[in-house]
Design goal:
- This protein is an alpha+beta fold.
- The protein has 3 domains: 82 residues, Monooxygenase, CATH 1.20.1280; 184 residues, SMI1/KNR4-like (3-Layer(aba) Sandwich), CATH 3.40.1580.10; 131 residues, Immunoglobulin-like (Sandwich), CATH 2.60.40.1470.
- It contains 14 helices and 21 strands.
- The protein has a 5-stranded antiparallel β-sheet.
- The radius of gyration is 28 Å and the shape is globular.
- The protein starts with a helix and ends in a 16-residue tail after the last helix.
- The N terminus and C terminus are likely disordered.
- Pfam families: DUF525 (PF04379), F-box-like (PF12937), SMI1_KNR4 (PF09346).
């Protein structure tokens, strides 16, 4: 029968067979090559492998010419090196390229801080050192770029408020291994990021343990009300490394996160959160600060950035000055609070045509989600008796999902249950994040001085 099939295939024209093969995956093409000599010859057709090289390795005609190899040989070369990552490579490679192209234009000094990719041997040595397997998507990303040099600003975003500053570096795998956790409450967790100023780190769970799911990324948050110091709650930032990294990159390259003084700031602008009154437009973006929040006792810490802009087409007579602010704050349990006061963060900005005034403030909540809205009161510079209000659009502040350790959850509650609560803490315990890295790699961790803000400023 096999011989008969081969004879029949030998008499079929190549074009329809190649057309059929072009719809197959690279695995199916390889399998077909074993069916008969005729298919084996056709499966080496270069245009067939060009598609797979482009789809799976993002290679171009220029790459092939530079390599001096056929498309088939080029696919084999990449597969022998990166084949285990074929399900992750395209997504992560595209994210890295998008991020680098964006940084080249907006934050060029960050490009120089990226480290060359790690080798398979280096990653295997790290796994041997920590005694735990690294997720394939994490390994794939670190084959492309082995994190970032320990410099400021950090690739994973910054935040600045009063005397509180945070800038998270994407750790290289060697430094991350130095902070690998084996202690109770943080077992089998690998740090992803590190901030010199706060000691804050995001972690990657390498195994299912202590209420965490394997491959989740999170900020640890000590339970301040527990007797056991190892009781660690978690603010979840991603379900996998790919989810965490690509989501962050998308926010950067789409302009969701603003660039301020050559740094990426993790403020999120809610679509539609813009209000225009006459010649003045007000827009708001917000950010949750995990390093100043905790789950027990419940207290969320948010910062918000407000942009006030007067239209360039406004008449010079429209110039005005801000006198006061009014806020209406509604929490998720239905409580309403009203706050008013002079100026904004101690300033009374004057608005003229084309003028932009931006400021950041903060607030704290003890419920999982809240929203604020209100207005500013201005007076005209041409006629101080002329007073008017400018609307501040409603904006929401929602804590990321978080999880409590299984020791606190009820027996009927799954370890993986997510809770929507929040809280305040000055800082994670020393052993929770950056200090372990500092001890292993000689990082000088600046002491966190605390900057808890009142209910509103």
């Amino acid at each position: 029968m096999a011989a008969s099939s081969e004879i029949q295939l030998d008499h079929l024209p190549s074009d329809p067979l190649l057309h059929i093969l072009s719809y197959l995956s690279y695995r199916d093409v390889v399998h077909c090559s074993y069916v008969s000599k005729r298919l084996n010859d056709l499966c080496k057709h270069n245009p067939l492998w060009r598609r797979h090289c482009c789809n799976h390795w993002l290679l171009t005609d220029a790459d092939r010419l530079q390599s001096g190899l056929s498309w088939c040989s080029l696919f084999k070369k990449f597969y022998s090196d990166l084949g285990r990552y074929i399900e992750h490579y395209v997504v992560l490679k595209k994210s890295w390229e998008q991020l680098k192209n964006f940084l080249q234009q907006r934050c060029p000094r960050m490009i120089a801080s990226l480290k060359a990719g790690a080798t398979e041997v280096e990653l295997e040595e790290i796994e041997g050192q920590i005694g735990c397997k690294l997720p394939d998507d994490y390994r794939c990303s670190y084959r492309i770029h082995n994190g970032q040099k320990l410099v400021i600003p950090g690739l994973m975003g910054s935040m600045s408020l009063s005397n509180h500053y945070r800038s998270e570096v994407l750790l290289d795998v060697e430094t991350a291994a130095g902070g690998f956790q084996l202690r109770k409450g943080m077992r089998r967790c690998l740090p992803l990021t590190f901030c010199f100023h706060t000691g804050l780190s995001q972690y990657l769970a390498l195994e299912d343990a202590e209420g965490r799911r394997k491959s989740e990324s999170f900020y640890p948050c000590p339970d301040q009300t527990a007797q056991d110091p190892s009781a660690i709650d978690m603010f979840i930032t991603g379900t996998s490394f790919s989810d965490w990294f690509t989501g962050y990159v998308n926010n950067v390259v789409t302009g969701e996160y603003p660039i301020i003084k050559d740094q990426i700031f993790r403020y999120v602008h809610e679509k539609g959160c813009v209000a225009t009154t006459g010649d003045i437009t007000v827009s708001v973006s917000t950010s949750f600060l995990p390093e100043l929040s905790s789950v027990h006792p419940p207290h969320f810490f948010f910062t918000y950035r407000i942009r006030i802009e007067m239209s360039r087409s406004a008449s010079p007579e429209a110039a005005c000055q801000l006198d006061s602010r009014y806020w209406k704050i509604t929490t998720s349990d239905g409580n309403v609070e009203e706050v008013q006061g002079p100026g904004v963060v101690g300033e009374f900005p004057i608005m003229t045509p084309g003028k932009v005034h931006e400021y950041a403030s903060c607030t704290t909540f003890s419920t999982p989600s809240e929203y604020m809205e209100g207005h500013y009161t201005f007076h005209s510079l041409a006629n101080k008796e002329e007073v008017f209000q400018v609307a501040i659009p409603r904006f929401h502040m929602v804590c990321p999902p978080f999880r409590e350790p299984p020791t606190r959850t009820n027996a009927s509650t799954s370890d993986s249950t997510l809770f929507d609560k929040g809280d305040f803490c000055k800082e994670d315990d020393e052993d929770d994040n950056g200090d372990d890295i500092g001890r292993h790699r000689g990082i000088d961790v600046v002491a966190f001085e605390g900057s808890w803000c009142p209910r509103l400023t």
